[in-house]
């Protein structure tokens, strides 16, 4: 038997092939203006990445409904008015040889207050982070049916515009993930309660999406391995949901983990952070091994991969099919090409300069505010690098010692763009 390798071709159940085992995982670009449409900045950024060697790049989360965003600056696709600019975006993103898939999402309660004061969610469970999020309204049956249809509409437009596949965002505490978790889904009707009921929203979104894109078009799901909160979505649940998705005909499951309240998708699990003997690489690999035993559908794992040795082990020893990379590709857009050419062993940067209070507080500080600043700044640093690349500039990795600066950059962009957007929509 020949050994599996990260340069192998992968054929998906729908028949579409991927040229190797690397994908750039979704990262919200925050580059749209008040019209919520993709623009030249998206084209420049994605064209840059398209030459980076990965088989596929996933867009940042594209919203299905203008009323509810993950943040101002999101692209929204809810009708064909944006078809031309979407076509330009897809063309640029494929120009260097990668495929481009669109990640489709609805924030549910993780919608900043500057966008909507009463976002939708399965139940009215408020997200309490610095007053940045409003109390959600529990969705009615009509809201649920409307949301399901919106995912399908966005997927159909993505296909028409030339995107090579779509991914339903069912992780990180956004709307689908809110339905899956018993913490955020306290419904008493048949959308809540048992896991089967909680997974119904995701399965309906998948079915509606598949119905409009057809059986030959890649449809993926990004799923939490767990949300790492007491009483939340567990790894056993994740394995069962993966089995259902496999039965339903999914092409690829990307595993991640966490929510806004427990940001494991960028910080790793607490268990890993505590245990200094475990390398903080590949945060969800142990969980992915369990899902691997449950299903044979192609699996992608994202979160924390930094050394080529760990990526190789995941592919060769653990039977993982795709490696998802996000932050390293904001500072080294050609990292995958380097790996495939055998030129690099490690990717990404040391992040010490991106946290304040190190030693006394660290990333896992008791002080929740310092924790928040550190987590936000460690994400926004990369958003800032994407912003540079979108203007045709190179990443600037020597300017990284400014945790507070990146936190303020985020607040500033979110608030001012949010207010400008509100104003533009009213006038
Ligand atoms: C700036 C930034 C934006 C992100 N936006 C998204 C997003 O839109 N959708 C998503 O599923 N994950 C998003 N993520 C999470 C990444 O896809 C990925 O799961 C996470 O960064 C861990 O992978 P990494 O260690 O390779 O960076 C984002 C991460 C960062 C740093």
TrEMBL record:
MF (Gene Ontology): FMN binding; oxidoreductase activity
Source species, domain of life: Bacteria
InterPro entries, per the entry: Aldolase_TIM (IPR013785), NADH_flavin_oxidoreductase (IPR051799), OxRdtase_FMN_N (IPR001155)
Residue ranges annotated for the NADH:flavin oxidoreductase/NADH oxidase N-terminal domain, each copy included: 17-341
Alphabetic keyword roster: Flavoprotein, Oxidoreductase
The protein's name: 2,4-dienoyl-CoA reductase
Taxonomic placement: Bacteria, Pseudomonadati, Pseudomonadota, Alphaproteobacteria, Rhodobacterales
